[in-house]
Specification:
Layout: E1 3-9, H1 22-30, E2 33-39, E3 52-53, E4 63-64, H2 66-76, E5 85-94, H3 97-104, E6 108-113, E7 118-119, H4 121-126, E8 130-133, H5 143-154, E9 187-188, E10 191-192, H6 202-220
Parallel strand pairs: 1-2, 1-6, 4-7, 5-6, 5-8
Antiparallel strand pairs: 3-4, 9-10
This protein binds S-adenosyl-L-homocysteine (SAH).
Keywords: Cytoplasm, Methyltransferase, S-adenosyl-L-methionine, Transferase, tRNA processing
EC number: 2.1.1.228
Main location: cytoplasm
């Protein structure tokens, strides 16, 4: 069965958004993956379909209600739905290529997009939501974070990248950042392409790429050097 994402959001019009174009969009049209949205406000309370309320203990902003969010989750993920339940959150586990690969190998995901100050902690616990962060900064809502995560997942799904090598050399595969790329023209603004790349010696090219990947990773992301390798 194809990968299926269900997004719980107050802004369903943000989807598929950028995932409706290019490779992800074509794959969506082909049915290589599926995307559905659920409007959280449909589960709101009262005449005004309230989804949020003031924070217990005081303070600025509003908090998404546990009962409303739970109803939305229960509607999205019925009995027997084994897809992981995720919540986009700056407090979450950092999104990594390894996590993206795990998701892509599964049946899909139910993804809650927060707004306001966040979501009542009780529903995060009660519905077993895994919080996922796309980086150490604060967005105004979880929607763009969900789009980022899904973009990373969808490009790994079978058939989506077509003939393009879903590169074993890519950044983070093997724990390294990627080596530099070059293409024609051979000379541009007085700059040439490293000779080894035009030598036709595939072994030498491999060695150069590995050495460059190591150098760049050491320089830019020493935290990745010695990090556990991701085994395919
Ligand atoms: N008050 C919260 C931030 C709320 S931002 C705090 O300080 O932690 C509103 C919503 O945007 C969050 O509920 C979450 O769904 C989303 N969001 C913001 N930053 C994010 C990030 N780095 N990664 C994933 N989701 C994020």
């Amino acid at each position: 069965m194809a990968f299926r994402a269900t997004i719980l959001t107050l802004y369903p019009e943000m989807f598929p958004g950028p995932l409706g174009v290019s490779l992800a969009g074509k794959a969506l049209e082909r049915g290589d993956w599926a995307l559905e949205t659920l409007q959280i406000r449909d589960f709101g309370r009262g005449r005004h379909r309230a989804v949020d309320d003031t924070p217990a203990g005081g303070g600025a902003g509003m908090v998404m209600r546990a009962d409303v969010v739970a109803d939305a989750i229960d509607a999205a993920s019925t009995a027997g739905d084994t897809r992981p339940r995720l919540m986009m959150s700056p407090r979450g586990r950092p999104l990594t290529q390894a996590f993206v690969r795990d998701l892509a190998a599964g049946e899909g995901a139910v993804i809650l997009c927060g707004r306001f100050e966040g979501v009542d902690e009780r529903v995060i616990e009660a519905r077993g939501l895994t919080e996922v962060s796309v980086g150490d900064y604060v967005l105004s809502g979880g929607e763009m974070a969900a789009l980022v995560m899904l973009d990373a997942v969808v490009r790994l799904l079978p058939g989506v990248m077509g003939n393009q090598l879903s590169g074993t050399h890519e950044s983070f595969e093997g724990g390294l950042l990627e080596h530099p790329h070059y293409t024609r023209p051979a000379e541009w603004e007085g700059r040439t392409i490293p000779e080894v790349l035009t030598s036709g010696d595939h072994g030498a090219v491999e060695r150069w790429r590995t050495a460059e990947a190591r150098r760049i990773t050491r320089e830019r992301r020493p935290d990745l050097v010695g990090a556990p390798r991701h085994e395919p």
